[in-house]
From TrEMBL:
Binding site for FAD: 64, 128, 158-160, 326
Record-annotated Pyridine nucleotide-disulphide oxidoreductase dimerisation domain positions: 374-481
GO molecular function term, any single one: flavin adenine dinucleotide binding
Biological process terms in GO annotation: 2-oxoglutarate metabolic process
Protein name: Oxidoreductase
């Protein structure tokens, strides 16, 4: 390779020194770039794949594009008079076409233009690696090495990738990950999904709705095990009604697909076996840090960087290295990564201007919500929305709590009007010493839109007494808040 100190972009020749260098041009890296540019800092953004990252092309966007038609049909079938209008099945070709529009046919030119023209940053395409303190080298697609240096900060926003188990036969089985699960345009007759977390249950929902016969294999005793126990129970009931077979408490021990063609055979630790046309592994994530030069600054390759609340990496002298998004393992969710970028961007701007950091809890430079108020929506049928701590998590953290439950289908008129025979449940977890919410969970059709109100209550530490004056509109599902408060007050 030849070496060069500059790279050409549509903005003209680029300098080799910038205020901030960002590795990764997904949503998280783009928000960091926007915040740094808003502070008047120069920014170089390095991207080795598509500008827009995993979320835009293989994660949140395509998965929700696939799921929405499936859930829309399910919602219509729950309403007398509407169900009679649903006379056919979901049309896969139309669903795939819709997804392709939302991922812009995997063409990142629009997002690349936004980084350069919209944000005024310099985009360097290639594989970026740390090359010592405040330095980055980029191996470009045209076989050059571009060397960059940062005056104030280097930000790692390289995301995560599927962590596949070391199973006999996995290579010849050619399993799907979230990428094939969201970019494939052929419906397998039989699909095995391994993993009962958010990716696993969403992919089982989507492909079942598209026409696959789905078997969901889960090593835990329930679905979505990090949430309230009733969440997995209601999602499991939804799977039973829609025809998804759920096998709980079992682990895949072997895969086989002789010659890499034909069906895949899965062997489970209970001695049973079954075949599927494809198998999708949703068994966790690993950080994309194996080849980004962490060793050049004293960190371990392949590790999750340890960060403080401003997302600055601990153990690196000078405080110039930051890690945001999936990479720091605080909360593997796009919206939390973007929140971290707003926090880190403000911290870098303050650092560049010589100002002290406001890193106290809930301060301008502290990502406190990563531990206190993380919202997550899971687009299964029924939907799930949760924020903050579950009752068990709150108790383990030493809080004195009371959990209050409401049956949405029995106690909320808005839910009954939303869907005939509505089935759902809600819980709020109250800190008895402060009478504020530590967490809230909702399960049922349409509940994802309740999530931000719960997030405001938890993050704002709104007292129960003040929530009593937040009057929900009749007749909406949000009336659940009144029912929860009534149940708490008795």
């Amino acid at each position: 390779m030849t070496e060069t100190a500059t790279t050409d972009t549509k903005n003209g020749p680029a300098q080799d020194t910038y205020d901030v260098i960002v590795l990764g041009a997904g949503p998280v890296g783009q928000v960091l770039t926007e915040r740094a540019r808003a502070a008047g800092l120069s920014v170089a953004v390095v991207e080795r794949e598509l500008v827009g990252g995993e979320c835009s092309y293989w994660g949140c966007v395509p998965s929700k594009a696939l799921l929405r038609p499936v859930l829309a049909v399910s919602d219509a079938q729950r309403v007398d008079g509407a169900r009679e209008a649903v006379t056919g099945q979901v049309a896969p070709a139309g669903v795939f076409g819709r997804r392709d529009r939302y991922v812009t046919d995997w063409d990142d030119s629009g997002q690349a233009d936004w980084v350069t023209s919209g944000q005024g940053a310099v985009l360097v395409r290639g594989h970026g690696r740390l090359d010592g303190p405040r330095r980055v080298s980029v191996a470009t697609p045209d076989d050059r090495i571009v060397r960059l240096s940062a005056r104030h900060a280097v930000v790692l926003a390289t995301g995560s990738s599927p962590a596949l188990p070391d199973l006999p036969g996995i290579a010849e089985a050619r399993p799907w990950t979230n990428r094939q699960g969201t970019d494939s345009s052929t419906v397998p007759g039989r699909l095995a999904v391994v993993g009962g977390g958010p990716v696993g249950v969403e992919m089982a929902t989507a492909w079942n709705g598209l026409g696959s016969t789905v078997t969901l294999v889960v090593r835990e005793s329930g679905l979505l095990p990090r949430m309230e126990p009733f969440v997995g129970e209601l999602v499991g009931q939804g799977f039973k009604e829609s025809g998804v077979e759920v096998r709980l408490g079992v682990t895949v021990t072997e895969l086989s697909r002789p010659g890499g063609t034909g069906p895949v055979r899965l062997v489970l630790d209970d001695g049973s076996e079954f075949e599927a046309d494809e198998v999708l592994l949703a068994t966790g994530r690993k950080p994309n840090t194996g080849d980004i030069g962490l060793h050049t600054v004293g960190l371990t390759a392949g590790s999750w960087p340890d960060v403080d609340d401003s997302c600055r990496v601990r153990g690196v002298a000078g405080g110039w290295l930051y890690a945001v998004g999936d990479l720091n393992h605080r909360a593997l969710l796009t919206h939390q990564g973007k929140y971290q970028s707003r926090i880190a961007g403000a911290a870098i701007a303050a650092q560049a201007a010589g100002r002290s950091l406001d890193d106290a809890p809930w301060g301008a430079h502290a990502a406190t919500a990563d531990t206190a108020a993380v919202p997550q929506a899971v687009f299964t049928d029924p939907e799930v929305g949760a924020v903050g701590l579950s009752a068990a998590q709150a108790q383990r953290a030493g809080h004195r709590v009371r959990a209050v439950d409401v049956d949405l289908g029995q106690q909320v008129v808005g839910a009954l009007l939303y869907a005939d025979g509505y089935q759902g449940r809600a819980r709020m977890v109250v800190d008895l010493d402060t009478e504020t919410l530590l967490g809230a969970t909702f399960v049922g059709p349409g509940v994802a839109e309740l999530l931000h109100s719960a997030t405001i209550a938890v993050a704002g530490q709104v007292p129960i007494g003040r929530l009593w004056h937040a009057v929900p509109c009749f007749p909406t599902i949000s009336e659940v808040w009144l029912r929860l408060l009534e149940a708490y007050r008795g």
